[in-house]
Amino acid sequence: MGGKFDPVTLEILWRRLISIVDEADTTVARTAFSSLLRDAHDYTCMFTDRKGRELAQGTFATPGQSGAMALGIKRMVENLTPEGFGPGDVFITNDPWALAGHLNDVCVMSPIYHRGRHVGFTACVFHHADIGGRVSSDNHDVFEDGLFIPLVKLYDGGVMNEALMEMIRWNVRTPEEVIGDIRSQIAANHVCSEKIRQMLDDYGMEGLDELADEIIGRTERSMRTSIQEVPDGIYRAQGIIEQMEGKDDLVIRVAVEVRGDSITVDLEGSSDQVDWGGNVVYNFTYAYVFMAMKSMFDPDIPNNDGCAAPIAMKAPEGSVVNCKFPAAVAARMQIGHFITEIIYRAMAEALPGRVIAGSGGTPATMNVMYGRRHDGTPFHSVRIRGGGMGAGRDRDGEYCYIFPANGANTPVEIFESDTPLIVEKRELITDSGGPGRMKGGLGRRVVIRIPDDDSAPIPPIHLGIQAGRYRYPPEGLFGGGPGAGARFLVNGRPGNPYGLTLLKPGDEVVMDAAGGGGYGDPMERDPEAVQRDVREGYVSLEAARADYGVVLDPETLALDSEETARLRASAKGG
Amino acid sequence: MPAERRYRLGCDIGGTFTDFVLLDDETGQVRIHKCLTTPKDPSDAVEQGIRELGKAVAGAAAGMDEVIHGTTLVINAIIERKGAKTGLITTRGFRDVLELGREIRYAPYDIFAEFPEPLVPRRLRLEVDERIRSDGKVLRPLDEAQARNTVRRLIAEGVESIAVCLINSFENPDHELALQRIIREEAPGLSVSISYEVLPQIREYERTSTTVTNAYVKPLTGRYLERLSDRLRSLGFGGRLFIMLSSGGITSVETAATFPVRIIESGPTAAVISGQYYGRHFQIPDMFCFDMGGTTAKSCLIQGGEAGVVPTFEVGRVQRFMKGSGLTIQVPVVDLMEIGAGGGSIARVSKMGTLQVGPQSAGASPGPICYGLGGTEPCVTDADLLLGYLDENYFLGGEMKLDRKAAEHGILERIARPLGVEFMDAVWGIHDLINETMAAAAKTHIAERGGNPKVVTVAAFGGAGPVHAYGLARKLGAPRLLVPPNAGVGSALGFFTAPRAFDLVRSHKKSLAAADMEEVENIFRELEAQGAAALRKAGAVDGLLFERSVDMRFVGQGSETHVPLPPGPLTGMAKEEVRDLFDAIYENLYGRTYPDSPVEFINFKVRATLPHKLLKLPRLKASGGRVRDAEKGVRQAYSGAARDFVPHRVYDRYGLFPGAAFEGPAIVEERESTVVVGEGAEVRVDEYGFLWIDMGDAPGAENSARAEKGGADGRQV
Fold it and tell me: How would you classify the pairing of strands A501-503 and A458-466?
């Protein structure tokens, strides 16, 4: 061990760096206007050394954004010339190819100076609720998606570019909110820079480079040590992702090559980019590759450039996982979220204890419902939801989360007070968890009814869905069965989840989120665990027998051990 | 009060000790007592302690006018899952609300993160046919026959307590009240909690979870409080018993037994209440109350003598200190920050090859190595001992001898050698790193509340608080440190300054434009009537005060802003005035506001209070002596600035007198704690025996010395 920092001082400085970025995060929570930022925490703050290598990011960052951003900022910094920036400069961009894959993610980046010397960069990406454009997943190109801001200076030597601000103001629907949130981004960067300067003063340091080498180096070694435990080889898997009616399924192929302590993920053979918004830029694909790797190898250590250093990715240009400008990208999560589980599947043989089966919250479900109330006033509601998590080797899947992304649901009582609609059910679906030695997480049913009494809204009521898993349910691992697929019913009949659905008073829609896949042979599940599941209503009596070979007394639910053993033996024999 | 009842007793049941503070209202003198907590029946320790106090103070029990009681009984019952077998009744279609929660993953990169089991298993969550709409109108009337059958099914399952939470019941409680009646008819005496009474507030998961938690702890809290009352009576106590609420107020036994979920954080709030009192008494605008014990540090920002109260609390986190990994309940709780940093925090080598301290704790048993109780892992207290801050012969006033050799060996073998650093660097590193951890959390906590760490007065409480406060204050850049007498028992006087207060809330969503101010006024009047009833149970006759406030938001926004209202009926207030209040607060919180965007009411809130009895701080006797007489000697203790041992003058706190003043480096010892004062700081003792420590300028860049030393001499570590 060498270096300028002993392990004690190093840990103290490291904590300081994370606390600095968390303070910047707090500034956002206090100054941002839109609730997407304040409440759903859909933003990421980070800072880098002089070379753009990420040193620390906010503790509660969202995986898609933060992973893409670490990579994106590094690239952007590498492309800057030394004369290209100076004190008082603030850059702005929402280039999906440079950053997090859609126009709504706007990045503000500033160089940090200490005693006149350039020491690093601070940046934050906010998911702005509005960026103009045609808000729809069936856009044909990025021009329809909204306002595109290339990497330009918002402040030059401390002087604001008024023209640019006006440009933005006149291209969005809610200018107060968008401009206000951009100001909040500038404030967050400012806080970050100030605190870093203070730390450098406190410790008599000239810059961040040596500290960065040490922190990134140690993190990278830790990650590499973990990777080294995996036997060399190429691990492959593919995922089939459904598209809307009448379009071919998409294929994503991954080949994970482990060589020593390095990994290269190759997505060669994946489908071409599509003519709607499901296209994923390189960075966003990388973010979910990284999500898989980080969760498998080193979930606890704080994120920095060192975590990503051992992981390279190749993706064919023009494919759906590395789309070319000017593809439409607004619905990127519908495809991008799948990358993580496909990697898990590839690595399952090598790392059976560190992966989970397919999850019903992949991709995240988003519903938009809007229309007019009986008195003509408009209503509009956006909700996100997950499904059952996939099971792992030692754990049943949890019930209902968005995975690998993250987010919170909207309470029924808030939804009903914001709209004239009635939620009839929000409940777990019995038998929807994929059977396995470890059971997949249950999916969830939501039933919404359009009232037809004196408070009936004026037809039509619009329902737009971004989701998946209608045709291909989440798969199990090692003999575990799939979870139940997603369903979309309008008045009891299958609807088209990929189009806009128009509803009228009296209609009732059922939206079932998929359950997670099971893990291992269900015939090996502890019969008492099955008995417990039946008692609690997670598994039906019939499924206990059919899927798990467990026989229970229909009245008392007492376990019939003999009959169970017989049934399981014959299942094995057959 | 009868003339002979001159005493008040504060009694706080903690994890290890039950603390007693007996206040003589005539002289202002306090007497402190401690005995071991008796987990099986905590009232054993209460009785024992009062008997022991009675030996020292004749007639103490019969002479007590008030007993104010704080307890961790409720929170422990939840953490240890020792509450009642509870059933839940919900609207058809919603029995899984409790289990689905808000569906957010608290650790985004950890796919095996655990979530807490709901307190009521699914088979005991039953549904009834009924439905209230969001405006309170009945969509489907309650099917009473089906409801009765449902109640019978739960009773047949053998539940001891039932929670009822129906969708939109905060707008119309009729169906919940009908269920309450049916349950009482079917099983008289069975514990019932309905959400309209526990928390009539919008958001079904939070309301259900809170109601269920209340139901879960209600039977055991009721039994305990009954037993405690009986025991106090048998000791001759004829005064009034109050229970500490998590919000910092105190309430009657009846109210605590009905809403036990409100006393969940009843223990830890006492130091904060003391802090509030000192903040007001000494007129300290910004105070950071810092209470560091064996396992955790609990801190709180107190501005203008008021600690914040937040509406949400998380209990029983399955991943310690991870926000989001616990059960959410919505009750008013003092805005405490709790982190895993205490004297028992364990130091280890991380897998990154750096030093790690906490959040794991060796607790009181086996405890730090130096306790000699079988602990093998080095803890913060071991480092504090080796740094010379603690005296091995005067720990807990000399009751416990500390084992220096064992601590040395432990840190050398487990930390210094594996890390490859000098022994003293490892020892100092443990102390300094835990300070850094606390400072980082404190900065965020203070910033989130709009405060500035550079202006706060740090008030130190708890056994380890005064040992670490100097280092913490330095890292915060705080100018001043305050160490009250008996800081080691933390809450001491706090008990007597707690107001009798009760918070009430009701949700009713209405845009400001469409609101009928008569109707709003009526909601407030109803809440105030409920508050008055609760306070009457706590002995109120008159002098009731009501503070009204509303939670408002921009229409469609995800969260609310709390807006206190001026006294007086709302009917006399123009809507523009309400709007101006909202805008002013919003702008102050978030930097700007949007006067053209419409706003709406979500919650209406009332805090009902009785002015509390005044407390005279006991004055310290002026001795006219010399500071030198309080000196116990000089001890070599470690200086972070000098990176070496330097002589520290050691003072006996009990020998100090008003007006005494001295400079750091110094150490002040008292029975339950030790105050460390580093270089550059000046100490002054005030008329009440409080130590006021002026931090002065940071001594010659404390940290840069370190970096230079590490760098300039190129020392390989």
Answer: antiparallel
Cross-chain CB nearest to A23 (options B429, B443, B509)? B443
pLDDT reading at B712 higher than 50: no
A44-to-A56, A67, A97, A302, A407 alpha-carbon distances in Å: 11, 10, 17, 14, 14
Question: What's the gap in Å between the CA of A570 and the closest CA on chain B?
Answer: 32
Higher pLDDT, B610 or A439: A439
How much is the pLDDT for B707? 37
Amino acid letter, residue B301: L
B397-445 pLDDT, tens digit per residue, is 777 889 999 999 999 999 999 999 999 999 999 999 999 999 988 988 8
A209 pLDDT above the threshold of 60: yes
**Beta-carbon count within 10 A of B109 CB:** 25
Nearest to A7 among B109, B419, B589 (CB): B419
Q: Do A7 and B711 touch (CB under 8 A)?
A: no
- Sequence-ordered alpha helix ranges (H) in B389-545: 404-411, 417-419, 423-448, 465-476, 494-497, 517-537
| Residue ranges per structural domain of chain B | 1-71, 79-222, 500-610
Across the interface, whether the CB atoms of B450 and A30 are under 8 A apart is answered yes
For residue B168 the two structure tokens come to 């939109």
| B712 interfacial to chain A (CB closer than 8 Å) | no
CA–CA separation, B266 vs B263, rounded Å?
5
Contacts of A63 in chain B (CB under 8 A): 108-109
Q: Residues 573-592, chain B: which have Cβ within 8 Å of A?
A: 589-592
Q: Which residue has the tokens 């046919």?
A: B129
Contact check, Cβ <8 Å, A15/B433: yes
CB B533 within 8 A of CB B544: no
Query: What is d(CA A327, CA A276) in angstroms, rounded to the nearest whole number?
Result: 8
Cβ distance of A444 and B96 shorter than 8 Å: yes
Residues 155-194 (B) with a CB less than 8 A from some CB of A: 167-168
Tokens representing B495 are 């008990």
- Closest Cβ–Cβ partner in B109, B429, B703 for A291: B109
State mean pLDDT over B232-253: 90
Taking an 8 Å cut-off on Cβ atoms, the answer to whether B96 and A300 are in contact is no
Q: Give the amino acid at A453.
A: D
We find that the CATH architecture of domain B500-610 is 2-Layer Sandwich (3.30)
ipTM of predicted complex = 0.92
Cβ atoms within 10 A of the Cβ of B36, count?
Answer: 12
Q: Encoding tokens for residue B646?
A: 């330097």
The 10s digit of each residue's pLDDT in A337-362 is 999 999 999 999 999 999 999 999 99
B626 vs B148, residue with greater confidence: B148
Contact yes or no for B646/B667 (Cβ under 8 A): no
Residue with tokens 């001082």: A9
The CATH fold assigned to B79-222 is Rossmann fold (3.40.50)
| pTM for the full predicted model | 0.90
Distance CA B371, CA B366 (A): 8
Per residue in B266-282, pLDDT tens? 766 778 888 888 898 89
Among all residues of chain B, which has the CA nearest to that of A535?
B123
**B1-71 is classed in which CATH architecture?**
2-Layer Sandwich (3.30)
Average pLDDT value over all residues in chain B: 88
Per-residue tokens: A392: 């792992």
Return the DSSP state at B459.
Answer: E
